[in-house]
Amino acid sequence: ETVAAAGPLPPGLAELRGRGVTVVPHGVKLSLGGAEPVDPARVAHLAGVAALVDAPLVSEHIAFVRAGGLEAGHLLPLPRSREAVAAVVANVRRAQAELPVPIALEPIAALFDWPDDELDEAAFLTEILDATGALLLLDVANVHANARNRGADPLALLDRLPLDRVAYVHVAGGAEQGGFYHDTHTDPVPAEVLDLVRELCARRRPPALLLERDGHYPPATELRGELDALAAAAGFPVVT
């Protein structure tokens, strides 16, 4: 959302495109899980940025960020209900009608579940993907965070997801705070997340993986080491 659809691209992004690096616009404000229809202007902006960077796809979260005219400023989890499935499907279809490329949907890390859940996470995601034909953006750091905070088995979730629909994978670090594991994007990737990457790739290796780091950037040598560890866990050639 911070890139102007009319251009020009920020210098760093323009340099990456000049080197042939694939860029995927990643939204956080469509509120696909909201009860209200998605804002056409926000969809048009995402479509414009996709065209500007010649993206093969775009991605967004299965979450809501606004309701009743109020902005949460954060990705909020949905109740895993049939009603929520219908709301997400309707909004994804509205977005798909205006986007020039496919959309991949990312399940978020959540610190709580709603008491009126009707479906588990795998069934909830699969119903949405089947109804929309959308791709899956699988964040293994979110899988780890949710399993750890719920006392669940992350491999049990992996085994029930439609891994053939994965467009690419997010990987990130986190930290324990207040008795919960938080997906911070500002800490090193823990060994448990790299283990999940290995388990995922043993089942079906995704086309690509992306390391998310939004702050507290380490020295370049450490960051390259993290990228190499991720590549090795996934069975790809090391980056450096």
UniProtKB/TrEMBL annotation:
Domain of life: Bacteria
Pfam families per the UniProt record, alphabetical: MbnB_TglH_ChrH
Gene3D superfamilies: Divalent-metal-dependent TIM barrel enzymes (3.20.20.150)
InterPro entries: MbnB/TglH/ChrH, Xyl_isomerase-like_sf
Name of the protein in question: DUF692 domain-containing protein
Organism of this sequence: Micromonospora sicca
Biological classification of the source: Bacteria, Bacillati, Actinomycetota, Actinomycetes, Micromonosporales
